[in-house]
């Protein structure tokens, strides 16, 4: 820095710098100033921003608007990297004036180096409260140059402008004046490019190269080394800026007052008087009079001039101390001697020290002159004028903003400088639209993390100016995904991220956002999951994160219902239909293919469908971009599946299926499966990875259950037989069955002749028939275990005995000698279905079945049906003769001709499935010897022990008014056995508990002797619990039955605690509460129905009131001169309001009560059951097809038993409760938690195992 006084070219006058005619302008008249401003023809002020380098390895994208801007100097050609703080010169000038707002306010931090968006709201608030409190001035009549060139050479010019900032209001006293000092340093190149409006980027001090640091920053090194810091300036704020367009540099420094309020008190009258009295006390003979304030200030000014020239002051130190006070003199470097007196300052020894001292004296002098302007202007030295610092600064910057300069000259305040939006965008209202657009883009480029706030400001300015140009740009930015901060804040709020907590928010990265996104989805109520995706996309675009964008483009649609509706399918369609629908949509609407991809992926994940995942892997590999590649680390893939690498294929798939049913990421599991399948080269694994089905053709027979051929509409019988085969105690008993009986033995056995089954006696003929039926079961079960084929065929005798009533007598052939082998051919029977038959078997057979299992193959000696109209005509395979090995008991073969079998099958078609179940179990019971007899002679046997429970029905007299139990009332109760619990889908239960609650509900009944409360509880639970779902309803309007396909959701676990007979007071109280709640629900529902009942015109009470009011409010009456009483309309209004509130209250209360009923027993989980088997019917009431799902508790997999085809299926297929799905459960079977070993569906015993299929 050059020493003041060195010969430099004098600065030009302001009129020379800015030739604007302003002499006649009265600065106190705003209107004249505004007229002057309106005359100025402003031009485009800001060039397009420089495009930042794009890091190809970065996960962030550059702002999209940068692709359309004209080419400018590349970043590589600039001496500095562009920082994150961008400002226009207008913003810098206004910041200097208002820096003290922030420094002296609550923030206690300057704003020169801060992004405008970070303080715009606070500054605008302060300005609206205090107005433009501060002004920026230069004392331009001062003979010491405040505007000067520091250096000038062939490379460029360094210019210094010194100014002050002070409050606009005239100070009340000297001590109330605070004069802050501003130093501008402008470094310009001789060869700089023209720049109509500077684009200033802040540089950190450490970023400056040595040359610029030397020219622009004060170097305290030498001063500090000498241990003298008395003259070191105290910076309260500073910033260095760089304009990439013209390479100019601007350094701004703000210093505090040299004399603070405590110092300036010395010039108040009281202080002067006090010092004078002290002086007179020490010098009583002195003729000096009390100096006035003007004299004291002038004395300080004169002293500073001498010190500035490094001259020894001529005045007596005591006299100086009288006028100025000791504190002021110490600030002027006067030294206190040992005797307490003050000595004159020493002259600095080095040039560096002189430089700092002179700068300090210069600031002090300017400060004194500024004070003198207000309180001592009688002195000629204090008659100085304030100059226009902004114009001087703009001239040194070579920025000719005519509007800005003229507004300063005219002293017209631009109200936009008080606007938070204009402050945020570093703009003013006179800027052209294109300049505001470019400034917005420049700010987004420099500080992309605040793009949303810039966009808010831009939006508000666009609407305020009603500018089509700005509106067009606004629409463009919105199309690019730019959103405002208020909207962005709401997006972050969805993920519990506080954008106002800068310390926490600064740590939020892409990975954190992805975790927050998934967490929010997992714990949302599911009402609108797509809003989380939309919010995250806005965040990704705002952050410019390519990584987040890719993540969202490959993330499945969270709302699966939306996925189905987007593809215009339902969740009941097959996987192939999903693929077809996707391909149609993709071809018809290619612009939306990303959405269709995400919908398809969502459906695949929801269904956990291998078929769909295989399609994704084959045709949508881009959806796996962010997923790791398991093929690169097969050991990790095996660990993820939870399986060692050296196991066989079947064991591997068993491990995989166990994980597939867990909560692990299905996408990653599938990728691991595909990677391992590629290495194993196994047809079994490859087939499974494509279909999700373990193809029995590639399995050893021992690893899959045996199927049952359909001998003619026997699909539900096949399901029933597979179910009973899976019950290990029952299967064992059937296989070990060894019993024969004669009429004489039957009559002689008191237990057999006396026993009752199902409440009735069993005759010898029924017993004989039942024994033969069990033997038929025994043969079938044995074949299911030992057959070397993938399916076997039930005998015609078995089907006949299962379908025909047990009371129907059957003739048997002569007894066969013990151990004799007989050959019984399996004859094929073609069954036909009547048009009204309730059971029509739908052929789900696989076209790839082996020849011996093909349907419709010619069979020698086949018996044909007289009718051939069934949609599912099936024939018995041409099976080899079946060898029946007789044990030590004797068997008889039933004499059944084809017509009898045809009739039995027809009977089976017209039976309810439960009738077949009861018929089968009755015969099994009849063939078993009783373990004991109950008091009513009911037989106790294995069937009773496994499948039967007991209920207790109680009738409790209640008070007719309170409905409370009568203390002296006689309770009547009845114990009954049950084979299954019946739930009615017509009651529209929400889930299985809701259905059972209805079955076990407590209700009131009127009997002849009074009103009673009927309750039903379970006194004895079965080991295997069966629940029948009544789906067939009767349509009274059409006069025909129909099947309800309403879903009845259930879980794998079922808890029966709430339905048990108990003495537990807490449970009894809970039941009483439910009883009271349901009574209230019934009462409120009746009231609601009454209020919503319709009159003859089809209107409810509320609708009638609303129509009446609307009619009275219309102009019909006015046209006819009919007056309507305002009280009438008022009464209608009040009634409408009352009725609306009443209906709303009823709805809210009903919702609350129903929720209470649903959750009343949710904590009771001591008596648990696990799902065992699920019977499925697909079709309508009059036709359809049956199959069964059976869970294997050992391998924890579900198998689908669909006649001859047995396959493993996914959990999602089994638990498919989709609306519109015609494949619905109609019979559920659960097993007690501690008895899961009773379930053993995989039982094969092959003496010579063969690998692969037969």
Give keywords.
1254 residues; alpha+beta; 9-stranded antiparallel sheet; 33 strands; 41% helix; disordered N terminus; Papain-like_cys_pep_sf
What does this structure look like?
Helix content is 41%, strand content 14%. The protein is α+β, with helices and mostly antiparallel strands. Among the domains are: 76-400, no CATH class; 627-699, no CATH class. α8 runs antiparallel to α10 (317-324) and α28 packs across α30. The longest helix is centred in the C-terminal third of the chain and has 34 residues, at 1126-1159. Mean pLDDT is 78; it is low at 1-76, 816-889 and 1249-1254.
In short:
The strands form 9 sheets. Strands 1, 2, 3, 4, 5, 6, 7, 8 and 11 form a 9-stranded antiparallel β-sheet that branches. With 1254 residues, this protein is of the alpha+beta class.
């Amino acid at each position: 820095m050059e020493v003041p006084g060195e010969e430099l070219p004098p600065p030009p006058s302001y009129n020379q710098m800015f030739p604007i005619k302003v002499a006649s302008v009265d600065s106190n008249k705003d209107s004249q100033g505004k007229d002057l401003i309106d005359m100025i023809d402003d031009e485009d002020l800001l060039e397009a921003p420089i495009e930042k380098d794009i890091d190809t390895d970065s996960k962030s994208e550059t702002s999209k608007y940068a692709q359309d801007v004209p080419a400018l100097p590349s970043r590589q050609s600039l001496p500095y990297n562009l920082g994150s703080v961008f400002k226009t010169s207008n913003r810098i000038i206004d910041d200097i004036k208002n820096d003290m707002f922030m420094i002296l306010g609550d923030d206690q931090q300057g704003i020169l180096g801060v992004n405008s968006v970070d303080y715009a709201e606070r500054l605008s608030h302060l300005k609206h409260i205090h107005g433009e409190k501060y002004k920026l001035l230069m004392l331009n009549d001062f003979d010491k140059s405040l505007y000067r060139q520091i250096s000038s050479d062939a490379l460029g010019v360094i210019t210094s402008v010194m100014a002050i900032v002070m409050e606009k209001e005239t100070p009340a006293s000297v001590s109330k004046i605070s004069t802050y000092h501003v130093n501008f340093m402008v470094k310009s190149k001789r060869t700089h490019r023209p720049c109509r409006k500077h684009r200033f980027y802040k540089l950190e001090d450490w970023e400056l190269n040595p040359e610029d640091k030397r020219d622009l920053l004060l170097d305290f090194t030498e001063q500090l080394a000498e241990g003298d810091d008395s003259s070191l300036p105290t910076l309260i704020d500073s910033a260095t800026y760089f304009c990439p367009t013209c390479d100019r540099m601007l350094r701004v420094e703000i210093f505090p007052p040299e004399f603070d309020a405590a110092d300036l008190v010395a010039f108040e009258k009281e202080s002067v008087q006090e010092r004078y009295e002290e002086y007179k006390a020490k010098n009583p003979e002195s003729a000096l009079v009390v100096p006035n304030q003007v004299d004291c200030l002038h004395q300080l000014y004169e002293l500073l001039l001498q010190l500035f020239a490094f001259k020894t002051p001529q005045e007596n130190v005591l006299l100086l101390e009288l006028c100025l006070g000791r504190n002021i003199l110490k600030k002027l470097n006067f030294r206190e001697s040992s005797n307490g007196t003050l000595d004159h300052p020493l002259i600095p020894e080095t040039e560096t020290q002189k430089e700092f001292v002179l700068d300090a004296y210069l600031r002090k002098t300017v400060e004194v002159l500024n004070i003198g302007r207000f309180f001592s202007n009688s002195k000629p030295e204090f008659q100085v004028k304030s100059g226009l610092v902004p114009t001087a600064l703009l001239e040194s910057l070579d920025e000719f903003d005519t509007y800005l300069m003229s507004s300063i000259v005219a002293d017209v305040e631009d109200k936009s400088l008080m606007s938070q939006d204009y402050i945020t965008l570093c703009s003013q209202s006179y800027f052209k639209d294109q300049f505001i657009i470019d400034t917005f883009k420049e700010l987004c480029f420099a500080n992309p993390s605040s793009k949303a706030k810039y966009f808010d400001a831009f939006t508000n300015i666009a609407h305020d100016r009603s500018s089509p140009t700005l509106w067009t740009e606004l629409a463009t930015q919105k199309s690019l995904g730019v959103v405002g901060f208020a909207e962005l804040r709401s997006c972050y709020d969805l993920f519990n991220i506080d954008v106002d907590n800068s310390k926490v928010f600064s740590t939020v990265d892409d990975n954190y956002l992805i975790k927050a996104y998934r967490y929010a989805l997992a714990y949302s109520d599911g009402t609108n999951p797509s809003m989380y995706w939309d919010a995250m996309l806005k965040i990704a675009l705002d952050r410019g994160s390519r990584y987040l964008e890719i993540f969202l483009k490959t993330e499945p649609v969270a709302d699966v219902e939306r996925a189905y509706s987007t593809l215009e399918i339902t969740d009941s369609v097959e996987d192939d239909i999903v693929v077809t629908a996707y391909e149609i949509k993709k071809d018809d609407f290619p612009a939306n293919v990303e959405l269709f991809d995400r919908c398809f992926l969502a459906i695949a994940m929801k269904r956990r469908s291998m078929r769909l995942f295989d399609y994704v892997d084959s045709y949508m590999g881009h959806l796996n971009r962010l997923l790791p590649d398991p093929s690169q680390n097969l050991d990790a893939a095996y660990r993820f599946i939870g399986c060692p690498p050296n196991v066989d294929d079947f064991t591997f798939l068993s491990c995989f299926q166990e994980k597939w049913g867990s909560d692990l990421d299905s996408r990653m599991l599938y990728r691991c499966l595909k990677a391992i399948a590629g290495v194993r080269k196994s047809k079994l694994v490859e087939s499974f990875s494509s279909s999700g089905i373990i193809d029995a053709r590639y399995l050893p027979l021992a690893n899959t259950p045996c199927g049952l051929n359909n001998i003619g509409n026997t699909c539900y019988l096949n399901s029933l037989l597979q179910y009973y085969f899976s019950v290990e105690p029952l299967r064992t008993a059937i296989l070990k069955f060894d019993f024969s009986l004669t009429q004489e033995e039957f009559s002689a056995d008191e237990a057999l002749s006396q026993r009752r089954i199902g409440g009735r006696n069993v005759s010898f003929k029924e017993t004989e028939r039942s024994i033969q039926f069990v033997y038929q079961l025994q043969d079938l079960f044995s074949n299911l275990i030992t057959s070397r084929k993938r399916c076997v065929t039930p005998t015609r005798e078995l089907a006949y005995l299962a379908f025909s009533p047990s009371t129907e007598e059957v003739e048997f052939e002569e007894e066969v000698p013990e151990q004799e082998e007989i050959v019984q051919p399996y004859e094929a029977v073609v069954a036909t279905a009547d048009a009204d038959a309730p059971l029509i078997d739908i052929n789900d057979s696989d076209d790839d079945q082996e020849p011996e299992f093909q349907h419709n193959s010619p069979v020698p000696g086949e018996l044909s049906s007289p009718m051939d109209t069934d949609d599912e005509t099936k024939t018995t395979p041409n099976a080899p003769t079946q060898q029946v090995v007789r044990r030590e008991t004797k068997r008889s073969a039933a004499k059944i001709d084809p017509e009898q079998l045809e009739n039995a099958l027809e009977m089976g078609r017209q039976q309810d499935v439960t009738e077949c179940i009861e018929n089968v179990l009755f015969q099994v019971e009849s063939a078993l010897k009783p373990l004991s007899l109950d008091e009513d002679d009911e037989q106790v046997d294995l069937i009773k022990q496994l499948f039967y429970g007991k209920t207790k029905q109680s009738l409790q007299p209640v008070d007719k008014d309170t409905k409370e139990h009568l203390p002296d009332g006689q309770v009547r109760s009845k114990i009954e056995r049950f084979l299954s619990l019946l739930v009615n889908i017509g009651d529209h239960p929400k889930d299985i508990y809701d259905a059972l609650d209805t079955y076990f509900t407590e209700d009131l009944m009127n009997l002849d002797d009074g009103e009673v409360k009927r309750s039903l509880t379970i006194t004895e639970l079965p080991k295997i619990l069966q629940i029948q779902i009544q789906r067939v309803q009767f349509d009274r309007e059409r006069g025909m039955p129909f099947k309800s396909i309403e879903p009845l959701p259930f879980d794998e676990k079922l808890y029966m605690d709430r339905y048990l007979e108990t003495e537990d007071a807490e449970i009894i109280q809970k039941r009483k509460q439910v009883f009271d709640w349901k009574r209230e629900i019934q009462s409120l529902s009746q009231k609601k129905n009454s209020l919503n009942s319709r009159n003859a015109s089809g209107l409810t009470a509320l609708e009638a009131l609303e129509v009446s009011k609307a009619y009275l409010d219309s102009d019909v009456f006015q046209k006819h001169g009919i007056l309507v009483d305002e009280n009438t309309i008022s009464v209608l209004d009040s009634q409408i309001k009352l009725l609306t509130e009443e209906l709303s209250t009823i709805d809210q209360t009903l919702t609350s009560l129903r929720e209470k009923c649903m959750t009343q027993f949710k904590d009771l989980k001591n008596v648990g059951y696990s799902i065992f088997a699920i019977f499925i019917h697909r079709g309508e009431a009059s036709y359809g097809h049956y199959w069964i799902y059976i869970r294997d508790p050992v391998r924890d997999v579900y198998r689908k038993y669909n006649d001859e085809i047995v396959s493993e299926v996914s959990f999602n297929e089994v638990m498919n409760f989709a609306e519109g799905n015609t494949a619905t459960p109609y019979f559920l079977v659960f097993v007690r938690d501690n008895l899961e070993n009773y379930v053993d569906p995989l039982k094969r015993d092959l003496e010579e195992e063969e690998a692969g299929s037969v």
